[in-house]
Structure formats: C-alpha cells, structure tokens
Design a protein that fits this description.
Elements lengths: L25 H18 L15 H5 E3 L6 E4 L4 E6 L5 E5 L2 E12 L8 E8 L7 E7 L8 E7 L8 E4 L9 E7 L3 E6 L2 E7 L15 E8 L19 E15 L7 H4 L4 H7 L6 H13 L1 E4 L14 H4 L13 H4 L11
Antiparallel strand pairs: 1-4, 2-3, 3-14, 4-13, 5-10, 5-14, 6-7, 6-13, 7-8, 8-9, 9-15, 10-11, 11-12
C-alpha cells in the first residue's frame, strides 16, 4: 500500500499544544509554562459553559489544564465529563498537570457522530522534548456512514513512523468506550475496552529505541487534519458540519509520577517501581488476551508499518517480536460485540 507522505504530517500544534524549542533552558521554560497554566486554572472561575458550578476537586479540574477557551473546552456533570470542540475559529485540547514514567493511563471517549471527515481526535502521552517519546490513540474521522479509523503510533527518542491502523468492531460515537495504554519496562499494550489491539515490546537489545527514560504528560486534542486524516487527504473537512465535538470521562491513571519541579526519574527506572507496575499494568498477555489480539490482527488491521514494503523495503527488527499473530491452537469465538464490524451511519446525538 503506497501512501502520501502527508499521511504522516501530524500536527498537534493545531490543538494549541505547540512545542517550544528554545536553544537552552528548555526544561526550565517548559516547567514554568506549565506551572503558570496550572495556577491560572486553579484561580479561574468554576463556572463553565454547560455547567452551573464545577467542583474544583473534580476529575478534569484536578488532573488537567485546558489549552482552549471556554467555547472549545467545556465541562459537564460537575466536572467529570469534558468536551472538546473544533470549529473554524479554533481547535481544542487539554493536558495533564502530572508527568509519568511508566504506568496505566486510560480514559473513556465518545466521538463526534455523522460526518467527521478530516477531523483527528486524540488521547496520547508525550514528553514534549526535542527527541521526544510519544504514545498515541488517534481517531481519524470519515464521511457519514463510514467508520472511524483508529491509528496508534509509538515514538521513542524522536523516532516514530510506527503507525498501525484498525477498524473498530463497534460504533465509537454511540457510547463511551475505554481506551487504555499499559506502559511498563517490558512492553506497551494498547487496549480498547478489554481487548488488546496492539503490543509494542521493549526491543532495546536489538538497537530499537523504547520510551523508557523520559516522563510523559497526558494529552487530548481535537483538530483539523484534513491534509492526511481521511483517505490520505482526498476527503476534506466540511466546515458546514461544524462544530465537531468529542467527550471524555472516567480518567484512570496509576503510574510513577515525576514532578515538574524536580524531574527525578531514578525511582521510576529502578526496581522501586516494579511492584506498582506489576499491579497496574499488563506484564504478560493472558491466553484470552492473546487470542483477542490475534483476532484483531487478522480481522481489523487495515494498515501496519511492518508490512509496508513500499515505505520500508527492509523490515524493522522489532516487527517479528511485536506481531499480533500468535502460535495458538485456541479457537476464538467472537462475542456479539467483537464479531459485529458494521459501525453503520453514526447519526446519534449526545
């Protein structure tokens, strides 16, 4: 499958998450920016569009700061539900107050129904450094009646282009679903509800970079990616359908925290964090999880960089280890939620 290079031109900056790259003192400047942003959030009014009063200790008040204005970042349900809005005026996003080096990071999302072509809705982690680490869930919009595509990607030490794309076996606009990243010293597992959709193992012994040294913040964004998101940019965003919205709730994180003001990663890298990571993250897939991963690999994957011989005539060394195809004699009888691959026309409202 030959793809336009625009396909890989992702730009989170459209969501207000611009990455600063000064010549010196980067960490100090970045920490100062985040500290000021957190202070602003802590003193701003607790009245938001769509709400009467927001509990300052609610999930999104306590854990995140907004990169958008009140028209593009809205809180509901006493601050337990956040909505990102995209229109011709602005994109939107939010970022965590805390950084982590390894852990379980998840959230529930409900995507925009109907025509969403050209939109990119994300939940991801990033170190925001020059040679950055990043773990991505990216939902690529589509025309009405056609399903979203879920793209995952891994960056380590600034090296990316590890895209994998799948179809979903449910309509992500009809209800909330869980999207979780299990990230430990052995592997990264991308989960959708109870199903692992991708495994990316630590292959540093093969000379492959792995995100094991840089703490990452948690982000979400909704932005215009029409140049590449839908059919490699052939289908553009239809602003007549704006505003576009996505909702987030039930944020769940258990990880090794790295404070902004100290930046000490030693306790997270050392064996001190092993017991916590054993409890919080998947260290080895169960037989059922292996079978589910194989089912996704065989039935849902629509693009995998490991099989793209046009971009990569020489295979990546990690691909054989990360393959979702398992040697298993178990038969997988998909239940109704997994065996149904028809998303239909997502025309439901919130």
């Amino acid at each position: 499958m030959k793809m336009s290079m625009r396909f890989f031109n992702r730009n989170h900056q459209q969501a207000g998450l611009a990455i600063l790259k000064p010549k010196c003192g980067y960490q100090v400047i970045l920490a100062l920016v985040v500290f000021i942003s957190i202070c602003i959030v802590s003193v701003q009014s607790i009245t938001d569009v769509g709400t009467v009063s927001i509990n300052p200790q609610s999930t999104f008040r306590r854990n995140f700061w907004s990169t958008a204005d009140a028209d593009h970042y809205k809180l509901y349900e006493d601050g337990e539900v956040a909505e990102l809005v995209l229109d011709q005026l602005a994109a939107s996003g939010f970022a965590s107050n805390t950084r982590y080096l390894f852990g379980r990071i998840g959230i529930q999302m409900k995507l925009h129904p109907g025509d969403s072509a050209g939109t990119v809705t994300t939940f991801y982690t990033s170190s925001l450094s020059g040679k950055h680490d990043e773990l991505d869930f990216e939902f690529l919009g589509n025309e009405a009646g056609k399903p979203y595509v879920l793209q995952t990607n891994v960056y380590a030490a600034g090296v990316g282009d590890r895209e994998q794309r799948i179809k979903l076996w449910f309509d992500p606009t009809a209800d909330f679903h869980n999207y979780t990243i299990h990230w430990n010293k052995k592997m990264i597992v991308f989960m959708v509800d109870e199903t692992p959709i991708r495994v990316y193992k630590n292959n540093e012994d093969l000379g492959v970079p792995y995100p094991s040294k840089q703490p990452m913040s948690v982000f979400a964004s909704l932005w215009n990616g029409e140049e590449w998101a839908t059919q490699s940019g052939a289908i553009r965003l239809n602003w007549a359908k704006a505003p576009f919205g996505a909702r987030y709730q039930s944020y769940d994180v258990q990880g090794c925290e790295v404070p902004w003001y100290k930046g000490e990663v030693g306790p997270c890298i050392s064996s001190d964090s092993d017991a916590m990571l054993e409890r919080a993250t998947i260290q080895n897939l169960s037989v059922e999880q292996l079978v589910r991963l194989q089912w996704v690999t065989e039935n849902m994957v629509v693009y995998d960089y490991c099989t793209d011989i046009y971009r990569y005539p020489d295979p990546h060394p990690e691909c054989s280890r990360n393959s979702g195809l398992q040697d298993s004699s178990s038969d997988f009888e998909a239940n109704d939620s997994l065996s149904s691959t028809n998303s239909g026309d997502a025309s439901s409202s919130w």
